[in-house]
Design brief:
By secondary structure, the protein is α+β, with helices and mostly antiparallel strands. It is 36% helix and 28% strand. The strands form five sheets. An eight-stranded mixed β-sheet has the order 3-6-5-4-7-10-9-8, with helices on both faces. Strands 13, 14, 15, 16, 17, 18, 19 and 20 form an eight-stranded antiparallel β-sheet that branches.
Length: 583
């Protein structure tokens, strides 16, 4: 069926009218075990919010340029069986199907999969980040569903733009509050919207997945961090054998035991500082000299600029008091420390410590989820966070309960070389090209790779379609043997980046309205310009002397500098990750 919508022609095949001869031929199969098809799947749902009840009213399935639309899960199940029969082959080449948020669809489709492919451990072949976050599943019909959202980390609208699909996500004509059923007639706006969504993903497969990953020696990564992790492993594998042996022995000796690892990842690791000052929340600022500034590649910058801890040793708590104000000591040594504060309170208009990072607290006041004051708290801090505590809090007393220290050195050269290469390529690649999007994504994923968790509970799929822990614990020592990065690297990358931002926020105080990881929305830019200039002068001196290998040093001149992004005419925030502006 064909129709026009806003000057564009769309076509689809209702499942009820689909014939097997309508299906395109797969042609040559790839050595990577996938058929030469561009497939995608998506569903449209409706709900009664008051009853917390949702249901499917339409699904769409793209195969190359063809879009098939069905209205019920029974039809979807029939489609899978039809595809399994039509593309059946002795070598079990698979049909790769992309879904942009597979976890959501899974909650509806889990009871309509005809059967699952059983993997080498005797369980259905399903990969999940958490019990409700499935990112890959394979049916016994050789149809493999994958999540494109966790691979790209961008919404479908941006994916369509970034990956040069030639299509645009349609949204403005949709009434999401309208209640629809599988029997509701579909207007052209909804049909066009549905067709575009899956055709965007089909083109994503055609223009990105096929040329970059469906070739010998490559696997399709499951997540964005897996892309750079696989590349890092290939680089490491090529290093001299003796270096690799000594390096991996050193990693194993420096790795924390399982109990310590779980403790530091839960209490010591913090992500980016994201906070809206409660004084500025819900206020609308118009022509108030509001500016947006951000760091130029914040995480890559600290990976190249700073030194990082390797092997921590426990020291007497009393020793911490001797070095806690020694900035020179902190340049060459890292520490993490368990502290107890009494009568702690903010010195500025900002509150920096997250409530969920406090091991214990009494009678505390929180500002948008951040500690403003309290009678008593216990917390674990890196030396970088300790410096920020001194900028933002005052207290009556602080007691050191435990103290660990390690000497610092630069990150491994093979990792720094990846940062240098990705950044140089990003700076020298035309922003209009797909290659720019890909290299920028790799650069951003380097940090994510350093903070990825080592292990998750092994989940198994039950007969009810639920993912539950199997009770089988992965062997921690075996996992450690395969590691080539320490968990301390990611913890301190985050800590350094957070410290860089907070060192500026502390100076701006009331002129800093909102911060998000590597950016701030500030008032009175020109009145505060000396703060940014002094910071950038220091960073440029570091860039002028840091190791760059064979790379072009001029490229790194502004790496890590705090740069003006835009001037806002209007600005308003309703809290973390919720703000709106006009320029």
């Amino acid at each position: 069926m064909t129709f026009d919508f806003e000057g564009q022609q769309y076509s689809y095949i209702p499942f009820s009218e689909l014939k097997e001869e309508d299906l395109p031929e797969a042609g040559r199969a790839y050595k990577s075990k996938y058929l030469n098809l561009d497939c995608a799947f998506d569903i449209e749902t409706s709900s009664y919010q008051s009853m917390k009840l949702s249901w499917l009213y339409m699904w769409q399935f793209a195969i190359n340029d063809i879009t098939i639309i069905g209205r019920t899960w029974e039809e979807f199940q029939e489609l899978l069986r039809l595809l399994g029969r039509h593309y059946q082959n002795d070598k079990h080449y698979r049909i790769l199907v992309w879904d942009h948020n597979l976890s959501y669809e899974w909650s509806f489709m889990k009871n309509w999969i005809p059967g699952f492919h059983v993997g080498k451990f005797g369980y259905p072949e399903v990969f999940a980040m958490e019990a409700r976050e499935i990112i890959k599943l394979c049916t016994d019909l050789d149809i493999e569903f994958r999540d494109s959202l966790v691979l790209t980390n961008v919404g479908l609208k941006k994916l369509a733009e970034d990956y040069k699909t030639g299509l645009e996500k349609l949204t403005e004509h949709m009434n999401y509050k309208e209640v629809l059923t599988p029997y509701t007639p579909l207007d052209n706006a909804r049909l066009a919207y549905a067709i575009n969504d899956v055709q965007i993903l089909a083109k994503f497969n055609k223009y990105y997945i096929k040329p970059y990953y469906l070739k010998k020696g490559y696997d399709i990564p499951l997540t964005s961090t897996a892309i750079v992790r696989n590349e890092m492993k290939r680089i490491f594998k090529k290093l001299p054998k003796e270096f690799k042996r000594k390096y991996k022995n050193r990693i194993r000796n420096a790795f924390p035991n399982r109990v310590t690892y779980e403790f530091i990842m839960k209490w010591l690791y913090r992500g980016g500082y994201v906070h809206a000052s409660i004084a500025d929340t819900f206020e609308e600022y118009i022509n108030e000299d509001m500016w947006s500034l951000d760091f130029k590649s914040s995480y890559p910058a600290v990976m190249l600029h700073n030194k990082f801890p390797w092997r921590f040793v426990k020291r007497k708590a009393s020793e911490w008091y001797k070095i806690c104000d020694d900035r020179k000591f902190m340049e060459d040594n890292a520490f993490y420390v368990h502290l107890e504060f009494t009568n702690i309170r903010s010195k500025t208009t900002h509150a920096i410590e997250s409530k969920h990072k406090l091991l214990y607290y009494e009678n505390c006041l929180f500002d948008n989820g951040r500690l403003s004051s309290g009678d008593k708290i216990e917390v674990v801090l890196t030396e970088q966070d300790w410096l920020s505590y001194n900028d933002f809090y005052s207290w009556d007393s602080v007691k050191c309960l435990t103290y660990h220290v390690a000497s610092k050195e630069e990150l491994p050269l093979f990792l720094r070389e990846m940062v240098l290469e990705y950044f140089e390529l990003k700076e020298k690649t035309d922003k209009s090209l797909l290659d720019y999007v890909l290299i920028k994504a790799k650069l951003n994923a380097l940090y994510g790779m350093t903070v990825s968790g080592l292990f998750h509970d092994q989940l198994v799929l039950t007969d009810e379609g639920l993912l539950e822990p199997s009770g089988i614990k992965k062997d921690y020592e075996q996992i450690v043997k395969s590691q080539i990065l320490l968990p301390y690297f990611g913890i301190w990358i985050s800590a350094y980046a957070r410290r860089n931002l907070l060192s500026i926020v502390a100076k701006l105080d009331e002129d800093n309205a909102y911060s998000d990881t590597d950016s701030s929305k500030v008032f009175n830019y020109y009145g505060n310009k000396y703060i940014f200039d002094a910071y950038n002068d220091r960073i440029r001196r570091i860039n002028n002397t840091m190791y760059v290998g064979d790379h072009d040093r001029a490229v790194y001149k502004d790496l890590g500098c705090f740069m003006v992004e835009d001037k806002y005419i209007k600005f308003r925030t309703n809290g973390c990750k919720r703000y709106i502006y006009t320029t």
